Amino acid sequence: MGTSNFYSREWIDLYLPPPFRPFARLARLDRPIGTWLLLLPGWWAITLAGFGVPDRQLMLLFLVGAMVMRGAGCTFNDIVDREIDAKVARTATRPLPAGHVSVRAAWIFLAVQLAAGLAVLLQLNTAAIIVGAASLPLIFIYPFMKRFTYWPQIWLGLTFNWAALVGWMAMREHLEAASLVLYAAGFFWTLGYDTIYAHQDREDDALVGVKSSALALGKHTKPFVAAMYLLTLALIAYASARIITPSWPSLAVLALAGAHLVWQVVTLDINSPANCLRRFRTNRDFGLLVLAALLLQRV
Question: Would 2 be classed as within a structural domain?
């Protein structure tokens, strides 16, 4: 997935005053793929749990919330990992290890982002607020998981797809089987795409003692990712079918989304960081195809 001019690294240097640039990079505003991956399960849930065209105001709130909370998560992750990041080639230029932002300033920036996230969350109904707040322990524990387990991707999957539960509660104020199945679909999706992402740092991670599914799986990565993606697609189809009978157009688009996942697996080269990054980024396109399929099913 190519980034737009607005979200390229250059826009920060072109349009933001110098004091704000390191904080924009700390929040990964120049790398929007993480926001998409956090946002899309929430949009799926809002669409599937609704009736007809999704609530535009709610969709916008989730967009803002995803941007803010993804930034907060990245900021906290960088505070915790600043010493490790300094030893990894891909992350050594991040604002904290590079010395562009002090640790104290990063904590203040984190507090500001969390306050903004709370302001967005308070626009939702009480049930959604409670479920949304319950995600905070997941967010704050995640950065430590790679120190203890080869499967931090499991914790990331639980965290990154929480918006599916919040979105469902925002629409219906109670969880249903379909909402839990949709959450599970996002969980397996994350296990797949983040394992691909982790292969970029495989050698550096091994040197500094950081664990990941990429290191655990090695040459078995492709069949694992294929299995995770198969579960993802099957569970999305099952969740949507529990709510409303799928239409042929929606099934056709979902099949196209499945073909995209097949392309990722078939063309994946775990020994090429550029190849891994490209396939990881294209998960935005998969998520948007799923959203289109659910829209066609609901309207």
Answer: no
